[in-house]
Amino acid sequence: MATSSSSKLNKAVKQQYMSLPQGDKVQAMYIWIDGSGEGLRCKTRTLDSEPKTIEELPEWNFDGSSTYQSEGSNSDMFLIPVAMFRDPFRQDPNKLVLCEVLKYNRKPAETNLRQTCNKIMSMVENNHPWFGMEQEYTLLGTDGHPFGWPSNGFPGPQGPYYCGVGADKAYGRDVVEAHYRACLYAGVQICGTNAEVMPAQWEFQVGPCEGINMGDHLWIARFILHRVCEDFGVVVSFDPKPISGNWNGAGCHTNFSTKEMREDGGLKVIEDAIDRLSKRHQYHIRAYDPKGGLDNARRLTGRHETSSIDEFSAGVANRGASIRIPRTVGKDMKGYFEDRRPSANCDPYIVTEALVRTCLLKEEGEEPRDYTK
């Protein structure tokens, strides 16, 4: 099993230094999405005191030419703090700081999808849109081979691994437990976790979160997972189909509801929203992975608990549909629905924005509406 050289360093020696007092100073790790739209970057600065609000955090900058975000001749990009969490690695009073990225002209970077999402969410705040996202992922060795798989072959076929228990069924539970506790410490709205259908594949759920908080909390949960995996010497992949063949892919099923959907008679509102979604399938497919649908084309085949990427479908308790209405929602006549199309490597900002545009702002057609005009 290939693990990183860093993970083999003596952690007890590191702890000797981490236990030293830091006085009144605070370490703030600034985190941002790079030019790939999938990768995360981070760097740390010292603050003179513990910040209590986002407004107390200073703006910062970085070299965008080294993150696929600018030319070397004009490389300064701005980091604008937007959300703050406790740091589970350095612990209190230190902070994790999620940032938006602005270009030299103060306009959002191409992969800064948060700014538009925030504007859209502010337009529907009275509807109280709630989201819950189910983040699937795969653990890999540093050689790209799935964690725990035989070096020259495959494990037994799918069947015993989903929610499995035992060394021959659950591959890498230490990573999962460490990530869960780190998220709780940080203040991430993580609400559950389970082993998935393919061995070395897992899932964690974040939510319910209202509006822009969904994207903020999922991105920080992903960052924490990357860091936990770094400590264990393994790699986390959010690729929607990391292993070809008869193995499940990885998605980011998105549960959505509004105040009206959660109230008595809400099933009618849910059905109306699904009808709107059915007429805008291609717009959503383009929004649901960073490559405009190309990544999801490998996953949404109509097999392995997925719908076909070419067709829209909906059904009660149907995991082979684009949209699933949970059986309890059909029985209670109110609640939420699950959009099963987003890929594991989706940007939650554009996924949640797309759902609000179609279901609440009642947009039609294949392009999002520009509300600045």
From TrEMBL:
InterPro entries: Gln_synt_N, Gln_synth_cat_dom, Gln_synth_gly_rich_site, Gln_synth_N_conserv_site, Glutamine_Synthetase. The keyword Transcription does not apply. GO terms for cellular component: mitochondrion. It comes from Solea senegalensis (Senegalese sole). It is an enzyme of class 6 (ligase). SMART domains: Gln-synt_C. This is Glutamine synthetase. Its EC number is 6.3.1.2. Its main location: cytoplasm. PANTHER family: GLUTAMINE SYNTHETASE (PTHR20852). Its cofactor is Mg(2+); Mn(2+). One of its GO terms (molecular function) is glutamine synthetase activity. Belongs to the glutamine synthetase family. The keyword Transmembrane does not apply. It comes from the Eukaryota. Keywords: ATP-binding, Cytoplasm, Ligase, Manganese, Mitochondrion, Nucleotide-binding. Residues 113-373 form the GS catalytic domain. One of its GO terms (biological process) is glutamine biosynthetic process. Signal peptide: none annotated.
